[in-house]
């Protein structure tokens, strides 16, 4: 077992035995920007609340999928322009990305991150309309504070979180190279008074496979054929058998994307797509290799040829929260009357994935979650969750998230001791990491 894999497996084993330390809520030991600035930020968000709610509703009512979010970006940029901020659309060479704000001199630079893409068929069922509106509200509130301090504050619009890896594309283009820390918030289910403080999320890699066989008449001369669909079915069943022997938090799931043209033709081509998820980078690499071997074995068993495409979309790295920043967020959201679970949330491990994970491995960053006040059993990626994003409790969450994001940004930009703690923690976590480092 490699030296880097062992700690990950040890963590999982201790968690299963109940030996993971209980979270302790210590609060933030740093002063941040101070209560007067926090009150100023809250007033600024409240003053723009109708506009932010209108933006969230507009993005909900006119959803656009990844890399096609032209109207969504136009709406966001128009709102920014209404308040005197010019945004660059198509930033970083990504057509539906944008950036506004500035990095001033040698001072610190904080980035607020917006998402706005929708899911096919079910619209804003991951709450990206709330993510965008809260980030815009936070930026508009905190920009005057950053200007007074002479430091940098940016709002970065990142497309195609759902299945395109927009943030990784921006990283590769150097879009985060001058950023020192970043934050965004993600909506979740349940009571608006009970957000998950800072969940860990798995990383994900996509593995696409197309099997090439030989067509034949399925009744007249089946012995002449080599069935590509049989290869896909064998691969699917092989992956299902693999699941018995993976880590508890690991996930592998897939669909058949092409199963042939007609029942009386032995399929000469068939395809499938699998998502491979794990909580650590090295276990993600190892599990992907195991899945690939299953797919190769299915080709051998069916005398077909496998065309395997690993990472047709940039991999999403496991989310890594910065506790020093998270505690500032927690203090801010408590100030809005919300109950926050204890931190650090070492036992809160989510199975979903996000390209925000790539950002958190590239620089100190956080993605806390906030409840929209919907039913506990209505989770993201459900049409009912999309409906929850345009109800009054969601608008309360939007305002609370915007205030807490703005306060966290102002705290970081104002407090050298906090910045030092954030940087020290990030260095202890291994420092800057890119997917290319794992792929070598």
Automatic annotation (TrEMBL):
Domain Peptidase M20 dimerisation per the UniProt entry, residue ranges: 203-300
Domain of life: Bacteria
Keyword Transmembrane helix: no
Region called Disordered, residue ranges: 334-353
SUPFAM superfamilies according to UniProt: Bacterial exopeptidase dimerisation domain (SSF55031), Zn-dependent exopeptidases (SSF53187)
Keyword terms, alphabetized: Hydrolase
GO biological process terms held by the UniProt record: folic acid catabolic process
Ligase keyword on record: no
A GO cellular-component term linked to this record: cytoplasm
GO MF assignments: dipeptidase activity; para-aminobenzoyl-glutamate hydrolase activity
Stated family: Belongs to the peptidase M20A family.
NCBIfam families on file: amidohydrolases
Entry-linked PANTHER family: PEPTIDASE M20, XAA-ARG DIPEPTIDASE
Name this polypeptide is given: Peptidase M20 domain-containing protein 2
Annotated source species: Microbacterium pseudoresistens
């Amino acid at each position: 077992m490699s030296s880097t894999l062992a700690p990950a497996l040890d963590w999982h084993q201790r968690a299963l035995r109940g030996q993971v330390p209980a979270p302790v809520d210590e609060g933030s030991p740093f002063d941040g920007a101070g209560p007067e600035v926090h009150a100023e930020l809250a007033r600024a968000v409240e003053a723009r609340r109708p506009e932010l709610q209108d933006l969230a509703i507009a993005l909900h009512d006119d959803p656009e999928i990844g890399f096609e979010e032209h109207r969504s970006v136009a709406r966001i940029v128009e709102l920014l322009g209404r308040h005197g901020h010019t945004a660059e659309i198509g930033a970083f060479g990504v057509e539906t990305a944008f950036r506004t704000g500035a990095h001033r001199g040698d001072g610190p630079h904080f980035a607020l991150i917006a998402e706005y893409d929708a899911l096919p068929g079910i619209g804003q069922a991951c709450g990206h309309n709330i993510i965008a509106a809260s980030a815009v509200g936070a930026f508009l509130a905190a920009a005057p504070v950053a200007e007074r301090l002479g430091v940098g504050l940016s709002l970065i619009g990142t497309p195609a979180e759902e299945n395109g890896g927009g943030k990784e594309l921006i990283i590769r283009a150097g879009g985060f190279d001058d950023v020192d820390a970043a934050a965004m918030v993600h909506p979740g289910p349940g009571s608006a008074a009970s957000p998950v403080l800072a969940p860990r999320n798995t990383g994900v890699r996509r593995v696409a496979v197309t099997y090439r066989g030989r067509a034949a008449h399925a009744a007249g001369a089946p012995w002449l054929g080599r069935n590509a669909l049989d290869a896909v079915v064998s691969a699917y069943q092989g992956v299902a058998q693999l699941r018995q022997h993976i880590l508890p938090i690991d996930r592998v799931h897939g669909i058949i994307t092409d199963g042939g043209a007609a029942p009386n033709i032995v399929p000469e081509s068939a395809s499938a797509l699998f998502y491979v998820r794990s909580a650590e980078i090295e276990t993600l690499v190892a599990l992907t290799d195991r899945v690939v071997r299953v797919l190769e074995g299915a080709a051998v068993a069916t005398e077909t040829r496998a065309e395997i495409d690993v990472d047709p979309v940039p991999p999403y790295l496991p989310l890594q929260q910065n506790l020093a920043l998270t505690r500032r967020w927690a203090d801010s959201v408590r100030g809005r009357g919300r109950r926050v679970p204890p931190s650090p949330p070492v036992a809160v491990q989510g199975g979903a994935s996000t390209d925000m994970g790539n950002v958190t491995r590239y620089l100190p960053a956080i993605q806390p979650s906030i409840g929209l006040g919907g039913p506990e059993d209505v989770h993201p990626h459900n049409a009912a969750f999309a409906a929850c994003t345009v109800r009054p409790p969601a608008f309360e969450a939007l305002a609370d998230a915007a205030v807490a994001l703005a306060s966290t940004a102002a705290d970081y930009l104002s407090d050298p001791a906090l910045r030092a703690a954030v940087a020290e923690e990030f260095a202890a976590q291994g420092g800057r990491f890119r997917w290319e480092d794992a792929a070598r």
